[in-house]
Amino acid sequence: MDWTALFLSLKLALVATTILMIVTAPLACLMAYSRLPGKAFLEAFINLPLAMPPTVVGFYLLIMMGPEGWLGGLWTRATGSPLLFTFTGIVIASIIYSIPFALQPMRAAFEKIDPRLIESARILGLSPPAIFTRVIIPNSLNGIAASAILVFLHTLGAFGVVLMVGGSVPGQTRVASVAIYEAVETLQYGSAAMMSLALLPICYIFLLVVHRLTRSPS
Hints:
With about 220 residues, the protein is mainly alpha-helical. Helices cover about 75% and strands about 0% of the residues.
């Protein structure tokens, strides 16, 4: 069994989830409460990874993050190293691919907050950032936690996007899903079964937690 691939998957999921929670929370608040013109177009663009096959998303990211792509070229000029086939590359790809899975449940949690709480905060003179940190976030912790778990599980099982952008570099980009695929390809069913079995209880326990966090109080 490839323990390195399993630990790399957990590391990828943890890093991508942490960054996504920080980045997505203000965006989810904006989508929940603002009346921006063209918000529907922005939301549809953000949700594109939900509709497109992972390999299509991976292909566009491969072009964008390659040495001739705007992101890959910018990264190479800034750091002197390529972005493709690196751990940093699959983190960025996972973040882009998983944005909708963070945004939708977090936005739903924000929209469930009693509008009177926000209005009272405005009357008391709180600024928008203060309302966000002192009213919105504390009153939607369950939804935020559920969002984080869903992103973590989605990243943990990512395959197409990670394979397109990261390939299969041992210790760098060879995550559990890629290792399972390669084991099956080479008829190493025992190794594939062990890695799959290791992932099963992790996913099951986290899904139970999501159910508990999101169920309606009786």
